[in-house]
Amino acid sequence: MRRCRVAMGCSALNPLEVEPPIKAVDQDRNIQPPSDRPGILYYILVGHPAAWGEYFSLNRTTAELLLLKPVSRDLFHTFTLVIKAEQDNGHPLPAFSDLVIEILDENNQAPYFLQTTYQGYVNEAAPVGTTISSSANLSTPLNIVVLDNDIEETKDPQVFITLDSYKAIFTISREGITRYLTLLKPVDRETQMTYTFTLIAFDGVQYSQSVTVNILVLDANDNTPTFSQVSYSVEVFTNMQPGETVLQRQLTCDRGLLPSAPLCSPPIAPEQSTDMDGLTQLTARDADAGLNGLVTYTILAGDPDGDFAINNFTGRITIAPRVTLVVGRSYALTVRASDNAPPVERRSSITTVYIEVLPPNNQSPPRFPLKIYNLEISEAMRIGAILVNLQATDRELDPIRYYIQSGDDHKVFNLTETIGLLLLAKPLDRETTDQYFLIVTATDHPGSPRRRGDMQIEPKSSRAPRQVPTGGRGGRGIDPLRSRMMVVEQARRGEARRGVVRCDAVRCYVVLPACLPACLPACLPAAGELKTSTTTVSIVVTDVNDNDPTFDPTLPRNLTVLEERAGAFVGRVKATDPDAGRNGEVYYRLLTHAKLFNITANGTIYTAVALDRERGGLYELVVEASDGAVDPRRTTLVLQVEIIDINDNSPVFSQPVYNVNVPENSPAGTVILQISAFDADEDSNVTYRFSTEAPLELFTLDRLTGVISILQSLDFEDLSEEEDAIFTFQVEALDHEGILPPGVATVIVRIKDMNDYAPVFTQELYRGMVAPNAEKGTYIARVLATDQDPPNTNASRVRYRVDHELSPYSGSIFEVEEDTGRILTKVNLNEEPNASFKLYVIAYDNGEPVKMNTTVVEITVLQPSRIPIFTEEEYRWVAPP
Question: Which of 810, 841, 803 is nearest to 826 (CA)?
Fold first, then answer.
């Protein structure tokens, strides 16, 4: 198979380069002389696509492939031709070969990555050259796929990919559709856990959009658990009970541990770990993560009788059950701290704990039943509710006082000082704080004397300070339940110094004049020392449904979508609910236009049907967000959705037929009508025209405004009867693109005869008589008016009415018939004889404009004696035969 590549639009590279070249070899090479050897002719036998002949030809003798005209890759990607070679001696003996011609795209497309972000993983113990994985189990490599639309998807896009950072740690392969990240130097999770950088691909002309790569370094067990101290020394007492912790806070008087500032406190070595009871416990640190960093403690040696137990997870050493300690006995416990990696990878270290058993010491602190109290309370709990009774016990049965040491900065809780009841003091709000960790201190108050007195101080220095009565100068009274204040005097190198020390339940403070350089007592003397213990109260605030879902105000509320597409993306809403569980789950629905739009569970809105902007160009969508509670809370959001128009409507006239009456003799240029058409599409400029040229003799039409005017004056009487003074023609309305059929309407123009004459009464004054008690409808007289306009036209038809403004009272008792002019009584009369009334009657025609005239009818009420009376009720006359 032979191949040839042609660049799109190329026309000047003839002949085309074919690999391997088109050449046939005749196996009959021994024919002599060479001039008798037959020649070889070349043809393109067939090809695909069928249009190959328009673009390519083959020289019959040289086999050169020629390009006849440029090829567009938008039309053809490849051509497959069958080349035939045969002898020219009448015995063709043909041979065939396939030729594939590939049309190359011009480089007008930027390369792009298949993903916008990539997440990779690598073990911190991985050697240099390791391929970054796509999953935490390191089973599959991280595939970074880059494509270029200028090149077929199955071929290497041959782009160069660069990293914006960490180039000394990672590198990316240089070839292939799929590239791989590899490690250039080791990584350490404890130094840096994640690496984030961006990649950009370059095809020599255009750059891709950058993508983000995040690589998480997975832990390897490369750290050994390490104790904070090489050894620990502690003292225990024979009156300690099984289960009590033996590693208590170690109070030393080493001067190097005392601060030089005025504030002094019981010294604790910086490397010791102190729990919340003030007890020092074994602590081994392992910087690894997961099981590799989980430390387990074990006593290996030094306790043959099992007098002590160690908590495997915390390292707390306690007195074993049913054990009685013996004065003077010493222990050297070998304790191992090991991680929980697989056995073959496990690391460990050891330390020694020296324990000395001393005689009883009446200094046991109060004890809480639990080291930690776990509570769950509703955020709707009322103020004053009892949460828990934190009652501690004291071996010496001393009174106990309770305090919240930490964890309640805003005073949400109240702890009764004497009985240890924990109460709710302020309303709870889970959305503000969903959990509290209270450190509660229990302090005993042994029966120490309430007087100023001496105290025994046992410093490590050779010169012991002594206490002097506080009643002297600078002394103060003592409240043993709140604080202890003492005056300490020290002799040092022959120089006496004085200072005042205040002690509370936790620590001692030097208040005057400065911290004494000698050792201070560990709070109070042994006989009256306050002992404390602590417990932790973990309070989880449970949720009630007290929050409405809230819509994200940053998302747009004015949306657009193209008409005539079902399933088109409209927009997205997002609501959050700070409540927990089902109370915080958000569900969406549309309260309006639910048949036209759909909303998904994540708040994405699509069109449900193909919309028509001409039926509705703007929709107001009301979106409801509700939570998942049994009685859900709801919030609504109003969205404006504008439908974007496409040109799918022809102009439509405001009415299919326009009837217009034109007064005769109107001057040329008179506007007789303005037609209008509406195109429901947006931005459509409608123009108008006559459908035929016939109206152009008498009328003109403005193509932009639709105004129709007459070109000459038209006389009603001059028009022939055939024309009937009516002109009918059609007009068309076209949109600006002129693609759709025009709108069509009919215009009917009637030349209207004008009203030239007003009605004229036959008399200027009419008289009538009526009886004073005439009944309604009684005939009185008749008026008559004539009109000189052409007969049987509206302008010549005469009608009558009473002028009520000129005859307000007469018009209320008399009336005139509209068509006949007969004057009648309007009501049953009850008038005085000899009364006279004037009734003004108007005669008007129906022309345009209406013309009228007025006359007066004088009506006299007769005396009863003067009313004519017929002598007979009925008269008969028989006509002669």
Answer: 810
What tokens does 397 get? 């049965």
Binning pLDDT at 50, 70 and 90, where does residue 724 land?
low
Q: Which CATH number fits domain 652-752: 3.20.20.80, 2.60.40.60, 3.30.565.10, 3.30.160.340?
A: 2.60.40.60
SS3 584: helix
- The two tokens of residue 873 are 């009720």
List of residues 6+ apart from 246 with CB closer than 8 A: 234, 236, 240, 308, 317, 318, 319, 355
CB 266 within 8 A of CB 505: no
Nearest to 246 by CA among 351, 336, 358: 358
Mean pLDDT of 145-156: 78
Q: In percent, how much of the chain has pLDDT > 90? A: 46
Per CATH, the homologous superfamily of domain 550-644 is: Cadherins (2.60.40.60)
Whole-number Å distance between alpha carbons of 377 and 435: 10
Buried b (16+ CB within 10 A) or exposed e, 314-344: ebbbbbeeebebeeeeebebebbbbbbbeee
Domain 226-247+282-358 in CATH 2.60.40.60? The answer is yes
Report the candidate in 516, 484, 520, 518 with the shortest Cα–Cα distance to residue 498: 516
> How many other C-beta atoms lie within 10 A of the C-beta of residue 172?
19
**420-473 pLDDT, tens digit each:** 999 999 999 998 999 999 999 999 875 443 333 333 333 333 333 434 333 333
pTM summary value: 0.34
The DSSP call for residue 475 is -
Site of tokens 């004085």: 498
Q: What is the C-alpha separation between 831 and 437, in angstroms, rounded?
A: 108
Domain pair 226-247+282-358 / 760-866, same fold: yes
CB 387 within 8 A of CB 377: yes
Distances from the Cα of 430 to the Cα of 334, 384, 434, 547, angstroms: 47, 18, 4, 11
Classify residue 381 by its DSSP letter: P
**CATH top-level class of 760-866:** mainly beta
Banded model confidence at residue 72, pLDDT cuts 50, 70, 90: confident
Predicted confidence at residue 394, as pLDDT, reads 81
Looking at domain 112-218, its CATH superfamily turns out to be: Cadherins (2.60.40.60)
Q: Which residue has the tokens 């003074």?
A: 725
CATH topology of domain 2-104: Immunoglobulin-like (2.60.40)
| DSSP summary character for residue 133 | B
Average pLDDT over all residues of the chain:
82
